[in-house]
Amino acid sequence: MSANSAEPTARLEVVLVKAGRTKIRYPAELLHxxxxxxxxxxxxxxxxxxxxxxxxxxxxxxxxxxxxxDRWYAVKEVRAGDGTxxxxxxxxxxPAVRTxxxxxxxxxxxxxxxxxxxxxxxxxxxxEFAAGGLxxxxxxxxxxxxxxxxxxxxxxxxxxxxxxxx
Length: 166
What we know:
This protein is α+β, with helices and mostly antiparallel strands and 166 residues long. It is built from four helices and eleven strands. It has a seven-stranded mixed barrel. The protein has a two-stranded antiparallel sheet with strand order 4-5. It is globular and about 45 Å long.
């Protein structure tokens, strides 16, 4: 389909679940689904501005999000409204599940940030992950989550996200 096509753009509803409850749901444009990796694009879906101190997510920002059916993470490229890359926000999740026009992802608390210039790579929310008790309730999932965070950190520090996203 070309950019000038009159064909409708495929839409998905992204549903982020945390601790058994829906944390947020938002519409996204389906860019790609090859049976393993799903790519969507969506505007910042949060209410107002979210300032983490190292990055601000705000109205006008656009997220290109990559989910996998066989990996324990999601990688989200974050761009400002003018198209400038802010960086990549990565969620550690169970593998994504797509049913029709709904994409469900279970957030496991761990996150990673990589700035656009690659100088700032930081692991986030390890305290929340520990407090959540997944290591006791589902040790295999906890181990997969920590391994996924380690893998993403290595990729972030070596510029390897391009291997994942192309």
